[in-house]
Amino acid sequence: MAIPRKTASLGAAALIAFGGVLSTAASCAGSSCVNSSCTITFTDGARTVEVLDITVRLIDVQGGQARISVGGVPATVSVNNTQQVGPFNVTAEKITPSEVKLKISR
Fold first, then answer.
1. pTM of the model
2. Which among 94, 90, 95, 92 has a CA at the least distance from the CA of 105?
3. Where does the record locate the signal sequence feature (predicted)?
């Protein structure tokens, strides 16, 4: 049985639109910056964000620690500890398997 062209076109358009929403919602990295300090939140599998003219990457999360890269410099951070990563100070405010929140400042 043939599907009318209009119905098939509408179905395909809905599938593409819904897929676009899913792919956009599947991962999110947000940031909020004031002066030379930014708070970054990685959720739902997001891995990269650009802040302060650098790339911050979340590599993985294991046992309450997050492996990150700040401007290409690798580091491992844990909650409520501040450490120097290249020219930046990085504090992990939250680390869970589904969310990592970092504060980065110069």
1. 0.70
2. 90
3. 1-29
